[in-house]
Recover the amino acids of this structure.
C-alpha cells in the first residue's frame, strides 16, 4: 500500500472547496484545501502535489497567475494542474493552456466528473 | 489715358480731305474750261467781225479804185465827187484795221495794210488833183493794198486756228487734270486703306494670340496697350480688365474649391471614428491646408476646458484664459482664431487655430467654417459613441459578473446535490430521489438560462469571431447527435445524422464551439418539440460551395402567427408553454450564423413539423460583406 497521492485544491468559495475536498478525500486522495491564490502558490511551490486544482477567479492571485509563476519558477515541477473556470470566455481556456494547464473543468461541474479527471491526471503523473 | 488717335476719326478726315480735293480739282478744271469756251466764242465773233471789216474794206477799196479810174478817164464833173466819196468811205474804214490788229495781236500785216491803203489814198488824192502821174502810182498801190488786206484776212484765219488749237489744248489739259487727280486720290485711298488695315489688324492679331494663350492656360499674359488705334488700345485695356476680373474670379473659385476639398479631407480623416489617429490626421490636414502653426479642439462641457486634440504638442500659444465658444470669432491680425463648433445650435466645443501674424482671409474663414461642421459632428458622434461604448461595456461587465456570480452558487448547489443523489451522504428514499430530480432539473434550466445569457452577451460584444479554425461540419453534427442520443432515447424520438460527402469534405471555417452550440440548440429544440415515436434528422451536404445543415423534425411545429417572431429574444411560440426553454436558443443560432457569414432559415407547419437550414460558407467571409 503506497501513500495516497497529494492533491491541492485552491478555491475561494468554501461550499465548493468543501465538496471538492470531500469527494476527492472519498476517492482516496490526500487533499489540502486553501482559499486564495497566495496560499495556493505557497503550497504548490513547497509541497510535492500530484495534482493541483486551481480556481481561475480568486481574490488576490488568480489561478492563472499561480499557474504561470509555478511553470516559470519551477520548470522541472511535476505537479499536474487542473483549472476550474467559470468559462466567462473561451479565451480563458486558451490562455489557461497557454500558461501550462493540463486540463480544465467548467463550472458548474459534477464532483464525480472532477474526480475522474483528477484520477486520470494523477495516473499520468 | 489713351493718347492714340482713333481710326474712325482718321478715316473720316481722310475721306473728307480726299472728297474736297477731288471737288476742288474738278471745279477749277471745269471753270477753266468754261471760261476758255466763253473767251473762244467772243474771239470767234471778233474774228468774224474783223473778217467782215476787212472784206468790207476790200470792197470799198475796189469801188473807190473803179470810181477813181473812171474819173481819171472821163471828164465827167460828177465822177471825181463820186470817187472822193468812195475814197472817204475807205478812209473812214481804215480805223477798223485797228480792231483787227487787236484781234491778231497788232500784227505786221494790219500795219502794212493800213500803210498800203494810206499810200493808195495819197496817190488817189493826187489823181483827183489831176496829177496824171499819180494814176500809175494809184494803179501800182491798189493791188498792193488788196494783197495786204488779203494778207490780213489770212492772218485772221491763222489766228483763229491758232486760238482753237490753244483752246483744245486747255480743255484736254483740264480733263487730264481731273482724271489724274481722281486716279491720284484713288491710289492714295488704296495706300491709306492698306496702311490703316495693317495698323488695325496687327493689334487685333496680337489680341487674338493673347486670348489664345490665355485659353491655353497662360493666365499671366497681358495685351499690349501701347500700339494701334485707340479702338485697339481700348479693346486691349478691356481684355486686360476682363482677364484681371477672370483671374480674380478664378482665384476665388480656387479658394472655394480648396476650402471644400480641405473640409472634405478633414471629414474623411474624422470618418475613422473612435480613433485618435483620425482626429490627429484631420487637424494636421487642416493645419497643412491653411498653413497653421497649430490647431486645438476644446470640447464643450469639459470643466477643465483642456484641449482635446492639439497639433503640434506645444501649447504655449493657447490663450489664457481659453476663450469660451460664445466669444468665438477671429480678428484679422490676431494670431489665434476661435471658431465655435456647434451642431444644430448645440455647442460642441471650440476650434482654436494659431498662425503667426494672423492675416485671416475670407477663404480661410470659409475653410474653417466648413471644417468646423465636420469637427462638431465628429465631436457629437464621439460623445455619443463614448456613451454607447461605456453603456455596452457596463452591460458586458454586468452580464459577465452576474453570470460568474450566479455560477458560483450554482456550482456549489450542483456539486452538493450530486453528492446527495450519488449516496455519498447516505442512501435516499424514493420520494427524496424524486425531489432531488426536480431540483436537478430546475437547476439545469437555470444553468441553461445563464449559459444562454452569457452566449448572447459574447455574441453582442463582438467576441464571436475571435476563433477561426477549419472544422468538419459532418463530424461536428454527428458528435452533437451522439451526445444528445440519451435525451432522444428518453423522449422516444429517433435521432439521426447523415452526411453526403463532397469535394471539400464539408469543411467550414469559424469557431467550433459556437458552431457546435448552434447545432446543439436546433437539435435540442427539435427533440424538445417532437413527441414520442417522432423523428429528428440532420443532413449535411454541399450546396453551391456552401455547406448546409438541415434539421427536420416531425414535431408540433410553430403556429403561423409566431413564425415571424421566432428570432426575437425571450419570445416563445404559443404552443411551447409548459416545455423548458429560455426563448434565447434560436436568436443565439441566428447570431452565430451571422457572425460566421452564414444564414439561418426556418420553416414550420403547426402539427406537421419544423425544418431548420443552417448554411455556412466554406471560406469565412466578412459578415458585413455577406449581409449586403
Amino acid at each position: 500500500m503506497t501513500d495516497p497521492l497529494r492533491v491541492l485544491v485552491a478555491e475561494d468559495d468554501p461550499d465548493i472547496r468543501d465538496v471538492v475536498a470531500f469527494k476527492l478525500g472519498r476517492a482516496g486522495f490526500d487533499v489540502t484545501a486553501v482559499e486564495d491564490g497566495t496560499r495556493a502558490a505557497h503550497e504548490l511551490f513547497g509541497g510535492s502535489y500530484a495534482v493541483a486544482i486551481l480556481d481561475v477567479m480568486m481574490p488576490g492571485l488568480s489561478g492563472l497567475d499561480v499557474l504561470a509563476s509555478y511553470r516559470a519558477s519551477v520548470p522541472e515541477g511535476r505537479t499536474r494542474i487542473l483549472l476550474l473556470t467559470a468559462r466567462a470566455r473561451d479565451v480563458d481556456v486558451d490562455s489557461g493552456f497557454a500558461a501550462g494547464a493540463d486540463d480544465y473543468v467548467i463550472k458548474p461541474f459534477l464532483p464525480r466528473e472532477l474526480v475522474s479527471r483528477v484520477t486520470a491526471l494523477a495516473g499520468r503523473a | 489715358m489713351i493718347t492714340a488717335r482713333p481710326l474712325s476719326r482718321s478715316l473720316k478726315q481722310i475721306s473728307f480731305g480726299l472728297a474736297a480735293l477731288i471737288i476742288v480739282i474738278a471745279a477749277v478744271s471745269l471753270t477753266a474750261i468754261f471760261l476758255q469756251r466763253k473767251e473762244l466764242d467772243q474771239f470767234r465773233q471778233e474774228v468774224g467781225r474783223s473778217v467782215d471789216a476787212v472784206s468790207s474794206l476790200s470792197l470799198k477799196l475796189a469801188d473807190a479804185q473803179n470810181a477813181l479810174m473812171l474819173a481819171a478817164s472821163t471828164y465827167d464833173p460828177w465822177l471825181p465827187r463820186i470817187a472822193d466819196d468812195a475814197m472817204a468811205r475807205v478812209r473812214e474804214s481804215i480805223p477798223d484795221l485797228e480792231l483787227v490788229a487787236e484781234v491778231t495781236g497788232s500784227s505786221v500785216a494790219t500795219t502794212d495794210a493800213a500803210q498800203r491803203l494810206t499810200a493808195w489814198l495819197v496817190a488817189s488824192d493826187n489823181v483827183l488833183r489831176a496829177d496824171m502821174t499819180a494814176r500809175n502810182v494809184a494803179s501800182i498801190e491798189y493791188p498792193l493794198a488788196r494783197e495786204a488786206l488779203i494778207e490780213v484776212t489770212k492772218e485772221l484765219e491763222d489766228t483763229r486756228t491758232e486760238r482753237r488749237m490753244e483752246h483744245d489744248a486747255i480743255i484736254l489739259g483740264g480733263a487730264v487734270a481731273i482724271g489724274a487727280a481722281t486716279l491720284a486720290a484713288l491710289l492714295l485711298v488704296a495706300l491709306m486703306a492698306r496702311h490703316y488695315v495693317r495698323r488695325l489688324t496687327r493689334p487685333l492679331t496680337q489680341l487674338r494670340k493673347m486670348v489664345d494663350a490665355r485659353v491655353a492656360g497662360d493666365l499671366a499674359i497681358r495685351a499690349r496697350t501701347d500700339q494701334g488705334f485707340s479702338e485697339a488700345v481700348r479693346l486691349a485695356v478691356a481684355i486686360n480688365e476682363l482677364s484681371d476680373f477672370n483671374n480674380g474670379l478664378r482665384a476665388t473659385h480656387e479658394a472655394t474649391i480648396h476650402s471644400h476639398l480641405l473640409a472634405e479631407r478633414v471629414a474623411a480623416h474624422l470618418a475613422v471614428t473612435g480613433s485618435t489617429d483620425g482626429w490627429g490626421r484631420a487637424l494636421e490636414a487642416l493645419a497643412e491646408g491653411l498653413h497653421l502653426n497649430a490647431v486645438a479642439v476644446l470640447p464643450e462641457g469639459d470643466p477643465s476646458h483642456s484641449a482635446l486634440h492639439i497639433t503640434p504638442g506645444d501649447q504655449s500659444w493657447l490663450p489664457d484664459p481659453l476663450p469660451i465658444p460664445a466669444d468665438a470669432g477671429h480678428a484679422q491680425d490676431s494670431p489665434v482664431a476661435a471658431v465655435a463648433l456647434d451642431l444644430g445650435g448645440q455647442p460642441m466645443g471650440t476650434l482654436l487655430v494659431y498662425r503667426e501674424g494672423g492675416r485671416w482671409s475670407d477663404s480661410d474663414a470659409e475653410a474653417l467654417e466648413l471644417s468646423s461642421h465636420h469637427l462638431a459632428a465628429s465631436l457629437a458622434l464621439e460623445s455619443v459613441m463614448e456613451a454607447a461604448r461605456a453603456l455596452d461595456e457596463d452591460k458586458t461587465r454586468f452580464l459577465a459578473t452576474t453570470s460568474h456570480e450566479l455560477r458560483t452558487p450554482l456550482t456549489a448547489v450542483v456539486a452538493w446535490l450530486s453528492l446527495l443523489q450519488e449516496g455519498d451522504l447516505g442512501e435516499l428514499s424514493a420520494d427524496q430521489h424524486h425531489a432531488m430530480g426536480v431540483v436537478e432539473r430546475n437547476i439545469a434550466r437555470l444553468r441553461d438560462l445563464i449559459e444562454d445569457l452569457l452566449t448572447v452577451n459574447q455574441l453582442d460584444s463582438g467576441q464571436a469571431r475571435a476563433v477561426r479554425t477549419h472544422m468538419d461540419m459532418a463530424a461536428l453534427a454527428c458528435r452533437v447527435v451522439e451526445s444528445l442520443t440519451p435525451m432522444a432515447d428518453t423522449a422516444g424520438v429517433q435521432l439521426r445524422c447523415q452526411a453526403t460527402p463532397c469535394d471539400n469534405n464539408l469543411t467550414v471555417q469559424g469557431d467550433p464551439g459556437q458552431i457546435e452550440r448552434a447545432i446543439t440548440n436546433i437539435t435540442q429544440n427539435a427533440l424538445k418539440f417532437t413527441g414520442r415515436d417522432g423523428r429528428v434528422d440532420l443532413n449535411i451536404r454541399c450546396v453551391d460551395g456552401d455547406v448546409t445543415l438541415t434539421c427536420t423534425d416531425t414535431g408540433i411545429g410553430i403556429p403561423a402567427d409566431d413564425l415571424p417572431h421566432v428570432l426575437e429574444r425571450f419570445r416563445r411560440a404559443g404552443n411551447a408553454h409548459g416545455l423548458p426553454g429560455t426563448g434565447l436558443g434560436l436568436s443565439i443560432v441566428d447570431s452565430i450564423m451571422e457572425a460566421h457569414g452564414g444564414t439561418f432559415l426556418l420553416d414550420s407547419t403547426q402539427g406537421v413539423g419544423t425544418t431548420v437550414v443552417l448554411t455556412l460558407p466554406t471560406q469565412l467571409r466578412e459578415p458585413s460583406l455577406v449581409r449586403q
